Amino acid sequence: MKRSRLNVLLATDGSPQARAALAFAAAFPWPETARAHVVLARGGLPAPRRADPWPAGTWRALDDAFEREARRAARVIRRRWPDATVSVSSAPPIEAILEEARRHRAGVIVVGSRGLGSARRLMIGSVSRGVVRRAGGPVLVVKGRRRRVRRLVLATDGSPNASRALRFLLSRLDPPAGTRVKVVQVLEPVLPRTPFLLPGPVRRAVMGSAARVNAERARQTRRELAGAAVLLKRAGWRARGVVREGVPLDVLLQEATVSRADLLVIGARGTGGIARLLLGSVAEGVLDRSPVPVLVVR
Q1: Contacts of 174 (CB under 8 A, 6+ apart)
Q2: Where in the chain does DSSP place strands (E)?
Q3: How many other C-beta atoms lie within 10 A of the C-beta of residue 43?
């Protein structure tokens, strides 16, 4: 598959999770030809005024802190991309990140999650969520400590965005040797409502029909997943497909845990206009509850 150059935008605000995202991105299997740019979002801080109540030197100290963080980010990223560039933006974080993504024609945005405390340990922050919802392309949300990507779970449901997620792996990444991809599709069983109200013979006929429908769906899904696995293997991944039954969000999170995944890849729902702001309940749930980094592709 022919590749175009991939531009990667890495966003940071100096927080521990943003720093972890930079380290994760530096070890991520981007193609050798990828280019990187870092944007340091200051957070829309107001300009200093004469009647400013802050102590003398506050603004200079903030400027110095951001300059130090920009230099630190540059050191981390230039270990991977010696020619990486860094900019500092005073715009509100989401707008700053999206504007830099447009300016640099980024093919993917990398942000850190901002979960806090035990109850919200897995919840992503408003900036990360806003970027994922409003970005026109893939967004990698980094959670947890730095890790190398060796095991991936690719969620699919046959939708166009799930297909785009597969194509992203095929055309945008260079798989390290031995890297495994588990392609997972979750089927919610077709079951008649309140079958216990039906007479015995009718109930058995209805349940038998539902079982045949579920079996055919599973066979068709296995064929599709086998095809996806073949494509991934040709691209250098070790891949296999699995069909699961149950509630999609719960099953995907379980698969990520059981597989000891380093990355969970999922397609978003919604394509343009107001719909582009809607990720779909499964993608939203994965972003909130996944214990590992999530790549959302649209």
Answers
A1: 29, 30, 31, 32, 236
A2: 7-12, 35-41, 85-89, 108-112, 139-142, 151-155, 180-187, 238-245, 263-267, 294-297
A3: 15
Quick check: 274 pLDDT over 80? no
The CA-atom distances, in angstroms, between 228 and each of 8, 89, 167, 199, 238 are 25, 41, 10, 43, 11
Quickly list DSSP for 34-68.
-EEEEEEE---PPPP-TT--SPTTHHHHHHHHHHH
Tokens encoding 220: 């068709």
Mean of per-residue pLDDT scores for the chain:
84
CB atoms within 10 A of CB 83: 7
Q: 148-156+168-285, superfamily in CATH?
A: HUPs (3.40.50.620)
Cα 275 from Cα 163, distance rounded (Å): 18
pLDDT in tens, 223-245: 999 999 999 999 999 999 999 99
- pTM, entire model: 0.85
230 Cβ neighbours under 8 A, 6+ residues apart: none
Specify the pLDDT at position 293: 95
List, for residues 117-155, the tens digit of each pLDDT value: 333 434 457 889 899 999 989 999 998 776 789 999 999
Give Cα separations from 18 to 27, 170, 248 (angstroms): 15, 27, 29
SS3 114: coil
Which residues make up the CATH 3.40.50.620 domain(s) of the chain? 1-47+58-147, 148-156+168-285
| Contact residues for 191 (Cβ-Cβ < 8 A; gap 6+) | 210
Residue that the structure tokens 């991105």 belong to: 25
